[in-house]
Amino acid sequence: INFDSVVSSTFTQTLDHFDSSNGKTFQQRYYHNNQWYKDGGPAFLMLGGEGPESSYWVSYPGLEITNLAAKQNAWVFDIEHRFYGETKPTSDMSVSNLKYLSSAQAIEDAAAFITAMKIKYPMLANAKWVTFGGSYSGALAAWTRAKHPELVYAAVGSSGPVQAEVDFKEYLEVVQNSITRNSTACADSVTQGFNLVASLLKTADGRKQLKSAFHLCQDIKLDDKSLKYFWETVYSPYMEVVQYSGDAAGAFATQLTISHAICRYHLNSGSTTIQKMKQVNDYFNLVNDYFGCNDIDYNGFINFMKDTSFGEAQSDRAWVWQTCTEFGYYQSTASATAGPWFGGVANLPAQYYIDECTAIYGAAYNTQEVQNAVDYTNQYYGGRDNLNTDRILLPNGDIDPWHALGKLTSNNTNIVPVVINGTAHCADMYGASSLDSIYLTNARQKIANVLAGWLNA
Description:
By secondary structure, the protein is α/β, with parallel strands linked by helices. It has helices at 56-59, 64-72, 95-98, 103-120, 136-147, 170-182, 184-200, 204-213, 224-244, 258-266, 273-287, 298-305, 314-327, 338-341, 350-361, 367-381, 438-455; strands at residues 6-14, 25-33, 43-47, 75-79, 129-134, 154-158, 165-167, 328-330, 392-397, 415-420.
């Protein structure tokens, strides 16, 4: 690869696109690479999501975006989302500054960036711009096309949850279904495990057993918040493994898969139910190079999240702010089917997450406000049902819990959902692998064909 063609730079960005009297600016980090660009080719813009960006998406060969760039002779850009990574628009992350953190501002950032790049690189003045993204930024890619059709010609929004929802109880329904699809015997063992945890919580001896099995840093306290925080810790490995199972991304390709990280232990008849849970948890930590104990100190977590410096908590504080003020997306046990499977419908209600909003950001961020914010988001972008701008591709994997908030059907021939059988979160974005199913291979081909049809129209 010719890495000389990969450039890291910063762009002077407007702090508040909705208040022209504000005048403040900040430096937004971006990367670009013109190694595949040929005269008259399009410009591809990867939108950063809820974390730092790197040169990866503009340079690494074999990714969906770089493969498509090579096919279409595209110039590839990637901008980092405000408040994540090195893109720090304000001096700190106090609530008064977090007012500038929203998807709406990020979309205007992308629009301002495209406008400026057309001037900076005159050969791109008439180029067709295509936005790309995955997960939250997959929704952003679609929304940026919808909000700025004059600048963005097409969008590929992988695994984008375009419907906001406060109580996202479907998430755990898909986790249950995805494990069950893999093996009903495995699923029976997993639900036995969660229900055993629920019964062990009721006695002092049981709580000791759980502390040991899950390698907890603290004793399990019986206060409401601590118990729910404990449940989050127990669910977390199962949720993360299902969400990314089989993606050609690091450990998820072969290690952190439903078969290898969950069912391999749950189908081992030589272990007790609690040992099976312990083995899943231990293996998950081992693969993630985590050798410490599992922290279940709720108050410690809230204090961590209250850090207003751009420090350790940066990405978490920023993303939780966005859930509290825009999206909800709270992965609860409220489902009548998944709740009992996970050991009880009351284990982790959406209200627990809303109470975190209040504890972290203040009393203004309460139940009513979160609901209003989510309603506004769906009205502003159209949600799943009123997203109706042409030339948007929406890939989703059907074992990915997030596909439940994606747009999976369309009456418009130029809004193209691509539902991929048996794949997880953002699977299409990664490089092709010998382990890919025919469904994933065909989906990538369909995405390439549809995009080529649009670009060459």
